[in-house]
């Protein structure tokens, strides 16, 4: 059985022949499209390392069947930098040491971008931590991650205010 | 994971027909089902993908003042819907206390009602579990069972229902709409889930190939909006299932309780409505001694299924505290730590 599935991945339309219905979005990205920035940690929705943004929402790609997402718009860590310039969340993670080993970082950054878009955490560090509880960091870089998200949110807010003005 | 064939019907009717084949399972977001399939606990031979069925992703205000929530509404969308959360704040708080932001963005209303227990022995395919494999026995009885049931359990199964969402829903008289080969019918949520008895493999009143299409809340449920809370003790502050939880909702007039609703989570294989406690609260003053008596009544039939007698006292205390919080009044905004005992009553941050 081969099922053609079309996805827009980081702005590029891709049609993939899925030969096994069990393929998750995570495996599709890593094994079929060579986009290995998205990490497989637990593969069971517990660690958040596989977080990507699908149709504007952050989800665990390990618990999403690829064939069920035909037509979806997918954003991964490989698609967030613009023209060689890091995304503000990436810049803030570097500035605040929001990582140590880096394995969870793509998932952390995609989750943070999702959280900032959702807009419900505001400038409250407690709400940021709560909103990021689906992303585990075994190195324990949580303090830096929270600071990075708060700063990136400010930077993104300031940039959009400049655009409006 | 066992392989399966995959179909994506265009209508509810087609979905029901597609699911009438033995071994078929409905797929919505798959946040629970895929996990179970990866572990070999669920082994469907066909997935009927209902995630795109039209008309099931709406939150509708009904003419009688009730609300109808489509089975495919995402947990996050319901919790963040301003009108809904204002009218049913305990439901929004319960939703936001469950899972993670990523999972809430995907998981659906219907899927939440049908999520499977988190009993470790249910997940361990090498062990005995009457729920997973009828008649095989229950390894939880003599195993690690400090988080298991204290109400409504049987010798064949001591697991609990993990849903937060269902706890305030059952307190507020939610109704489940289902559709199957015989057409559409509805059932109160209170009798939707089954207690284990001697058939723990049957978890709900759904017949084969029936699917949930919507959940309704009656207009009266919104009358509790000013005094409605969900409180959930977990082993960590966020992203954990309940050890014990409670939804409390009051209608209060001049410090007297006119009507009370109370339900417990994490204590049984279904969301546990505490009707006797509700009757005791109605007409009583909204004070702590009354709440203690109501808590004792709510747990009167509780007995430990194993190494979990602490949950009985914990549940009493959670009931008292949830009633106190409800009496104090619903905060203007869901707390930074939804439903957490560590959250401040006002909803402001504790540690900011």
Q: How would you describe this structure to a colleague?
A:
The complex is a heterodimer of chains A (165) and B (352). Chain A is α+β, with helices and mostly antiparallel strands and 165 residues long. Helix content of chain A is 36%, strand content 15%. Chain A has two domains: 3-79, Beta-grasp domain (Ubiquitin-like (UB roll)), CATH 3.10.20; 88-164, [2Fe-2S]-binding domain (DNA polymerase, domain 1, Orthogonal Bundle). A five-stranded mixed β-sheet of chain A has the order 2-1-5-3-4, with helices on both faces. Chain A starts with a strand and ends with a helix. The relative contact order of chain A is 0.15. Chain B is of the alpha+beta class and 352 residues long. Among the domains of chain B are: 5-52, 2-Layer Sandwich (Uridine Diphospho-n-acetylenolpyruvylglucosamine Reductase, domain 2), CATH 3.30.43; 224-328, CO dehydrogenase flavoprotein, C-terminal domain (Enolase-like, domain 1, 2-Layer Sandwich), CATH 3.30.390.50. Helices cover 26% and strands 18% of the residues of chain B. Chain B is built from twelve helices and twelve strands. In chain B, the strands form three sheets. A five-stranded antiparallel β-sheet of chain B has the order 4-5-8-6-7. A four-stranded antiparallel β-sheet of chain B has the order 9-10-11-12. In chain B, a hairpin with a 2-residue loop joins β10 (244-253) and β11. Chains A and B meet through β4, α3 and α4 of A and α2 and α6 of B.
